[in-house]
Amino acid sequence: MLALSNNTALNSLLSKLLQDYLEQMNSSAPSQVSSASSNLEIIYVLLLVGLFGFFTVGVMLTNIRTRRLEDSRDPYNTYIATDIWHKKDREYFQAKLIENYKLCCVFENQLAVEQPSTQIPEAKSS
Hints:
75% of the residues lie in helices and 0% in strands. Among the domains are: 37-72; 75-106. The relative contact order is 0.03. The longest helix has 41 residues, at 29-69. The chain has four helices and no strands. By secondary structure, the chain is mostly helical. The chain starts with a helix and ends in a 23-residue tail after the last helix. The radius of gyration is 45 Å and the shape is elongated.
C-alpha cells in the first residue's frame, strides 16, 4: 500500500505543477511576445559585436603577420630606419635651392614702370 500512496502523491504533485505551468503560460502570453522580441534584439546585438570582433581580430592578425615577414636586413626598412638618407636629402635640397637662387635674376621692363609725367590713355566710352 506504501507504493500506491507514493505513486498517487507523485501524480498529484506532477498534475499540480502542470496546472501551475499552464496557468502561468495563459496569464503571461502577451508578455512572451515582448520577451521574444527582446531575445531577437539580444541576438542582433551579439551578432553585430561578433562581426566587429571578427573584423578587428582579422586586421590585427594581418598586421602582425606582415610585420613578421619584414626582415631587418631589408634595404627598404634600412633606408627608413636610418637618418643618414634624410640628412643627405636635406643637403641636396639646400644645394639645389642655393643654385636656383644664384641663377635667379630680375629683369625690369622700362615701359611697364610707372612714370608720373606720362599719362596712360584711357578708352573713351561711347
